[in-house]
Amino acid sequence: MIFTVFKETWIYLMRHTKNRLTLILVFVALLAYSAFFLPRMNSFNTIDLEKLEQSVISNEGIMKSAMESENFDVNLFTGQSAYVESRRKLENNRALLMAIRKGDALRYRKLTDIYVPDFHLESLQNQAAKNSLFPMKDLNYKLGNERNRLESYTDSELTFHVIQEKTATQQFQKFFHEWGPTILIALTLFIGADVFVESIQKRTQRIGVPIGWGNYLFIQSLALLTFVLSFFLVAGAVFYVSNGLLFGFGSLDWQVPLYAYTDDPLLMMDAAGLMPIKTFLLKALPFLGLLLYLFVRLTALFSLFFRQSVVVFVAGIFTLLFERLYFNRTTRDIFGSDISNFPQTYFDFGKVISGEKNFLLNTGTVTVEKGLLVLLLTVVGVELLLAVTAYLRSRQRFIG
Fold it and tell me: Are the C-beta atoms of 298 and 319 separated by less than 8 Å?
């Protein structure tokens, strides 16, 4: 009977029109992203080629004008003449332009180690000022991380796809570091929102099932969890192959930024280190498993409370995005309790693993170990609450 319930839930998930459309749209979106969107996306390191060409022409004009007017006076602020300054920029900009056109990633890395075009640095500063509460701190953090990451590649590994993190392995790491967890949990909520409430429409078939109500909900939860995990695994494989064929597969041994918190601002850049992508992904797996299970069980709990799939989905999304309501770079505690004690702090677990959460909040309390413990305790709490709710709202009361 246990297998029968598990199988019926799987069949329901597979046959539901909503889920079929979701699966198709996800696969189409993955292929479209690799084929059309990713090639046009700029990274933190992308220098605008058109502006670089204009800068070459501009500095060449300034240099010629200085020569014609014999203006070689030294600027008191820069310590150089306009001629010398424009010649230096011209030589570096022209070298960068040639490296980009020839696809010489190694030459590009060596040049950007010692020189960044003014317009590019100004653009980064403007973006930081617009999007950050601490613009210079965040910009220096990103610049330091990028420098460390690029220096970790061997000469033979370096390509522009690697610099822009477009290879399949790098894209996986970026996915889990940024919006990936939110997307996967949201998909789980959308797919599973009606799994538990569908018993209401099939009351004559469900009322006499010889399995305890709590066990019945648990079997359905496992079926939903295995279904979404299988879907995510297949989708991940499709993306890895398609993206790898277009941009390269990358390596699990490549390095990504790791921030070890320090409360000394003078040592902040020394706290910026690296860790292999495989270490990041291995640490991400238990977070992903716990969160998916947690939200599957929350879906079951919300179903007992609300008995409407749309309301269940909205409640799940609200729980998922609840941190966004109060998150602030200066938030250290909630009602006197450290922010690291709350499960929603770990929903974007990629930033926890990389240490970026501590950097953003300027705290050292948010750790991988504590995150797993808090989520595990949250799962236990939800299980107890679900057991009590299933007892109070029995199968007869829920279906009737």
Answer: yes
H or E element, residue 338: strand 337-338
Give whole-number Cα distances, 150 to 2, 45, 99, 128, in Å.
Answer: 53, 10, 16, 21
Dihedral of CA 193/194/199/201: which sign?
positive
DSSP 167-183: SHHHHHHHHHHTTHHHH
pTM, rounded to two decimals? 0.91
Residue stretches of the chain with pLDDT short of 50? 72, 76, 79, 204
Q: What are phi and psi of 318, to 5 degrees?
A: -60, -45
The helix-helix angle for 368-392 and 277-306 (nearest 10°) equals 20
Write out the DSSP string of 218-286: HHHHHHHHHHHHHHHHHHHHHHHHHHHHHH----TTSEEEEE---S-GGGTGGGEEEEEHHHHHHHHHH
Name, in order, each residue with C-beta under 8 angstroms of 287's C-beta and a sequence gap of 6 or more.
181, 346, 349, 352, 353, 371, 372, 375
Please write the tens of the pLDDT for every residue from 157-170.
Answer: 999 999 999 999 99
What would you report as the CA-atom Rg of the chain, rounded to the nearest whole angstrom?
27
- Report the C-alpha gap between 174 and 145 in whole angstroms: 14
* Model pLDDT, residue 310: 93
Which tokens hold the place of 385?
């609450």
Cα separations in angstroms, 378 against 138, 196, 241, 299, 311: 32, 21, 36, 14, 22
Alpha helix positions (H), the chain:
2-15, 17-32, 49-69, 82-102, 105-114, 118-131, 135-151, 160-163, 168-177, 180-192, 198-201, 203-206, 213-247, 277-306, 309-320, 323-326, 349-354, 356-361, 368-392, 395-399
